[in-house]
Write a structure and sequence with these properties.
The protein starts with 5 loop residues before the first helix and ends with a strand. Helices cover 8% and strands 35% of the residues. It is built from one helix and nine strands. The protein binds zinc ion.
């Protein structure tokens, strides 16, 4: 069943990766506050990260995407290495909120890297670089899995 659906995954991702402005209307910046839900995944913070509010910015345009304090441990780790169905390897780092990201396209559970979570493509709201994915459970919890080498930590 998963094999059969693989073309869909490619279609969705290929569309989301296009740097073209045609995708812009699909962006949905999260300007509304999230409804109060159960706290995210009950995920602990990444203990190896420095505490504080250091900004995590888009490597390409320097828009503030999130902060070090948003780092979370999901499924036992803050950083994960995954390959997509096309064999492209991503190092993903998990953050709770990522206010500099917009999402593109509809949610999908195909090939999800985190059981119970559907993903949407997450892009930089300023330069539209594909930064990773927003993973959301139907039960409410969500987090962002962002591509490590597309971010920079900007210290004070
Ligand atoms: Zn950017």
């Amino acid at each position: 069943m998963i094999q059969k659906e693989s073309h869909k995954w490619k279609t969705v991702v290929a569309a989301g990766l296009q740097p073209s402005g045609r995708q812009l209307h699909q962006l949905r910046p999260r300007t509304r506050p999230q409804p109060k839900i159960v706290d995210p995944d009950n995920a602990p913070r990444d203990q190896r990260s420095p505490a504080g509010d250091d900004a995590v910015v888009c490597r390409r345009c320097r828009l503030v995407i999130t902060a070090v304090g948003e780092r979370r441990v999901i499924n036992g780790a803050h950083a994960h290495t995954f390959a997509n169905p096309e064999g492209i390897v991503f190092e993903i780092v998990c953050y709770r909120e990522a206010w500099g990201c917009g999402t593109v396209g509809s949610a999908s559970s195909e090939f999800t890297w985190f059981a119970g979570y559907e993903w949407r493509i997450a892009v930089c709201l300023n330069c539209l670089t594909h930064l990773g994915w927003r993973f959301a459970s139907r039960l409410g919890p969500f987090f962002h899995g962002l591509i490590a080498d597309r971010l920079l930590v900007r210290g004070p």
